[in-house]
């Protein structure tokens, strides 16, 4: 699964630690999601979509 | 209610609090285990006191299990995944190696008796290795 988390975070000039605090996860988790090493759960994806004010599909794209 | 309280605290604070609680319970379990094992050797001869010491040890063990579950519940989803994968590997290695070790004893392939402490050490080292590998994998 691909995602635009890193781009969206950079647009807001947030660090991984700041985004992690907003999502209530560890910085390592944000890093792993950004690198595509870990796919977030649906609740975490919803949390991110609410935080960025976008739909889940605009942030996360499933690889066909 | 507990989950609500957990949500109100940051992940870092929650993890620190749960880790300290787990460390206390683990320490209590170890101390009561040592008391139950060495007490009859150096402090008392009564079987009733030994039974009491073992029951206290089991109670501390239950507290440790609950604290470990709370610790897991307080982690974020990636941390939990790493922990669960490490525990799965440790459980598998413990089961396979433990039964193989026991069979070696039963079949008289090894000279002495199979000691459960070796199995505990193996499970612990496997778990620590699993956590380290998991952290590296998702770094």
List the helices and strands and how they pair.
The complex is a heterodimer of chains A (64) and B (139).
Chain A: E1 2-3, H1 5-11, H2 16-23, H3 27-34, H4 42-52, H5 56-59, E2 60-61
Antiparallel strand pairs in A: 1-2
Helix pairs in contact in A: 2-3
Chain B: H1 2-8, H2 11-42, H3 47-74, H4 77-106, H5 116-137
Explain what you see:
The complex is a heterodimer of chains A (64) and B (139). In chain A, α2 packs across α3. Chain A has a single domain, classed as Orthogonal Bundle (434 Repressor (Amino-terminal Domain)), CATH 1.10.260.40. Chain A is mostly helical and 64 residues long. The model of chain A has no long low-confidence stretch (mean pLDDT 94). Chain A is built from five helices and two strands, in the order βαααααβ. With 139 residues, chain B is an all-alpha fold. Chain B contains five helices and no strands. The two termini of chain B are 33 Å apart. The interface between A and B is medium-sized, with 14 and 12 residues.
């Amino acid at each position: 699964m691909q995602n635009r988390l890193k781009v969206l975070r950079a647009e807001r000039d947030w660090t991984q630690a700041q985004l992690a605090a907003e999502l209530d996860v560890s910085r390592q988790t944000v890093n792993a999601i950004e690198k595509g090493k870990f796919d977030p759960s649906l609740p975490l994806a919803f949390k991110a979509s609410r935080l960025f004010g976008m739909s889940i599909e605009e942030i996360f794209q499933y690889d066909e | 209610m507990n989950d609500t309280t957990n949500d109100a605290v940051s992940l870092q604070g929650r993890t620190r609090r749960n880790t300290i609680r787990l460390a206390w319970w683990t320490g209590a379990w170890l101390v009561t285990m040592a008391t139950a094992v060495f007490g009859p050797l150096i402090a008392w001869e009564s079987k009733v006191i030994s039974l009491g010491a073992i029951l206290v040890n089991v109670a501390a063990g239950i507290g440790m299990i609950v604290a470990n579950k709370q610790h897991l519940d307080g982690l974020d989803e990636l941390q939990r995944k790493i922990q669960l994968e490490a525990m799965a590997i440790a459980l598998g290695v413990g089961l396979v190696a433990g039964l193989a070790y026991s069979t070696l004893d039963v079949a008289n392939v090894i000279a002495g008796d199979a000691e459960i402490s070796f199995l505990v050490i193996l499970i612990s080292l496997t778990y620590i290795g699993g956590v380290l590998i998991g952290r590296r994998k998702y770094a």
